[in-house]
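[Q] Does anyone have a clean structure-token version of this?
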Amino acid sequence: MRELAEHKKVVEQWRELENRVLDLVELVPLAEEDEQLQSEIKSEAEEVAGTLDKLEFQLAFSGEYDARNAILAVHAGAGGTESQDWAEMLVRMYLRWAERRGYQAEVLESTPGEEAGIKSTVIEITGDYAYGYLKAEHGVHRLVRLSPFDADHARHTSFALVEVMPQAKTDIDIKIAPDDLKVETFRSSGPGGQHMQKTSSAVRLTHLPTGLTASCQSERSQYRNKEIAMTILQSRLLELELEKRAAEKARLKGKRIAADWGNQIRSYVLHPYKMVKDHRTDYQTGNPDAVLDGDLDDFLKAYHRSGLGREEL
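[A] Here you go.
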């Protein structure tokens, strides 16, 4: 029923756009000597063109899971405080992007760095085609800047890994047998008050056949932490299945798939010049401040319009 509702919504959007165009066509003959009406028609035509561009772009989302919500994880690379601060900058970028699009974003789990930034953070982003858009972000992101943590203000290069997974539908996409699941509880090691630090409310789940793990310690309730960890684990298992399909498809085509940490997808340079460049599409901009404030759409469009997004199953 949910899939049927999603398909109906798409049809309704195209029907609504068609009706708006027909209304404009009928108004054109009436506007020959009416400047105010001409202005209104021009404004409406621009809005229709923008809506059409958006709907045409969504046609690129033909993947089986593209319409799903997204589970996005950011992990700091080697480099200590520098990379942990960079990882936190990326988390802010994606939260701002979600806000710009009117999506809901919830931090499911976050492990803070020792001095600044974060070691890892998992975000659930809810909205139409959230995974379809954000799968373009999967890979290694590189930052070059003058270090705010270095007394000599030397130039540093930092790396962070971004994982993007479609949100799994409980017990439909992924079924986990009880015997395949190891559940561990422990005390929260991060901030959160005396309750979280004195009770074993944190939960770590391990899928024994694959070795994949997921943990959560951000909630007061052990039950809620287990629920969040299960959501993350199921999405990781679904992503693993998609990677297996992609690897088999690549093998049949003779393509080589690079490992995550060898797959540097984008560079953000703040010194000695300002530039953000996507190495897959060669799209670039000289305004990294806007990008880091969530202005990502041009990069996402360049990725999908290049056909890269359609190479996946």
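[Q] Thanks! Anything notable?
[A] The chain has three domains: 2-58, 70-167+259-311, 178-252.
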